[in-house]
Write a structure and sequence with these properties.
Blueprint (H helix, E strand, L loop, with lengths): L4 E5 L4 H12 L3 E6 L16 E5 L5 H8 L4 E4 L6 H6 L1 H22 L3 E7 L11 E2 L10 H20 L2 E7 L1 E3 L12 H11 L3 E4 L5 E2 L1 E3 H13 L8 E3 L5 E2 H12 L5 E4 L10 E2 L2 H6 L8 H9 L2
Parallel strand pairs: 1-2, 1-4, 2-3, 4-5, 5-7, 6-15, 7-12, 8-11, 9-14
Antiparallel strand pairs: 10-13
This protein binds nicotinamide-adenine-dinucleotide and uridine-diphosphate-N-acetylglucosamine.
Length: 309
């Protein structure tokens, strides 16, 4: 029913704020729990009476329990999304990226809330499956604290499913892009960095030869899926990849950007990032079997919308 209150943790962030917009448009009341570490008030339509923002931390048990009260489902997106931040400070990021999930599981058990949609990551596969379409049974190789916390969160959600009747929908996002993605760190999403620099006329740096490929998903397509997963009565166990099974190289990406903008600033090549995955592409058969995933937004159209063209 499109009339229940939904908690969105991390709702002031890039993906979360698009989800909030979509849920409000569907007639849901929405409560956001966000510590505004990377999220912004400006990402949210705070004048909308169906939206409530709680500024607080998912790692705090009582804050989380209070935020959940009266909600029928949760989208758990709050996390330190920067892999590099988890490498630099594993203890602090573990609080947000794992303890927050565990607190949520406990609060859901206590309050009898069952549905949670969780933002996991293709990072759980590490370098495994590289160069092929990566399916969900690909051996896991969480190479960073970020990836380990995501995988552990998946396992705990599944434990609470078996033990306490939670019905989690676990999604492993591949490379998501779109408006409001923060370009400010060198480890931000490559599309946010390239578009920001191209618009500002600043030189663009490609790490390696630019022939590495990624499976880019436009944020609106992801959000349509998350809304569906929050609303459907049943969700099968097991994580689901969110990708298009399409490979786009950085060189192809730059060509498309250049065409949309009528030119590009200088593009230079630097050494490839150590440990960089060469080809990352999702086998998305499980996604297509379980959910009605609409015809995805073509990369060019997504870029055009991001550029406001
Ligand atoms: P984001 O940084 O814009 O969003 C994360 C939000 O969580 C922010 O608003 C931040 O302020 C909030 N937050 C962080 N720690 C918190 C805490 N302890 N308590 C409360 N709020 C907290 O990043 P995003 O790209 O929108 O990522 C959303 C989710 O999707 C994250 O869980 C991320 O790990 C996951 N993910 C994203 C991608 C991608 O391509 N963007 C890929 C895989 C997984
Ligand atoms: C992404 C995720 C990461 C996750 C990994 C799992 C993002 C932002 N990162 O990393 O959390 O662990 O998937 O597979 O979603 N690049 C440049 N120039 C730049 C920036 C990047 O050439 O200025 C290159 C990178 O070296 C890489 C590619 O662009 O080859 C994509 O980089 P990035 O957007 O950081 O994403 P992933 O490396 O796929």
């Amino acid at each position: 029913a499109a009339d229940s209150r939904i908690l969105v943790t991390g709702g002031a962030g890039f993906i979360g704020s698009h989800l909030v917009d979509a849920l409000l448009a569907r007639g849901h009341a929405v409560r956001v729990l966000d510590n505004l570490s990377t999220g912004k008030r400006a990402n949210l339509p705070l004048g909308n009476p169906a939206l409530e923002l709680i500024e607080g931390d998912v790692a705090d048990v009582s804050t989380l329990a209070a935020a959940l009260r009266g909600c029928t489902a949760v989208a758990h997106l709050a996390a330190v999304a920067s892999v590099q931040a988890s490498v630099d400070d594993p203890v602090a990021t573990h609080q947000s990226n794992f303890i927050g999930t565990l607190n949520l599981c406990e609060a859901m058990r206590e309050q009898g809330v069952q549905r949670v949609v969780f933002a996991s990551s293709a990072a759980v596969y590490g370098q495994n499956g590289e160069g092929t379409a990566i399916d969900e049974d690909t051996p896991k190789a969480p190479l960073t604290p970020y990836a380990a916390d995501k995988l552990a969160s998946e396992y705990y959600l599944d434990f609470y499913r078996r033990q306490h009747g939670l019905t989690p929908a676990i999604f492993r996002f591949f490379n998501i892009f779109g408006p409001r993605q923060d370009p400010s760190s060198p480890y931000s999403g490559v599309i946010s960095i390239f578009t920001e620099r191209a618009l500002a006329g600043l030189p663009i740096s490609v790490f390696g030869d630019g022939e590495q490929t990624r499976d880019f998903v436009y944020v609106a397509d992801l959000v349509a899926l998350l809304v569906q997963a929050l609303e459907v009565p049943q969700v099968e166990a097991g994580a689901v990849n969110v990708g298009l099974n399409r490979a786009t190289s950085l060189n192809q990406l730059l060509t498309a950007l250049g065409e949309l903008l009528g030119g590009l600033p200088p593009v230079s090549h630097a050494a490839a990032r150590p440990g960089d995955i060469r080809h990352s592409r999702a086998d998305n058969r499980r996604l297509l079997a379980r959910f009605a995933f609409p015809e995805p937004t073509p990369l060019r159209d997504g870029l055009a919308r991001l550029l406001g063209r």
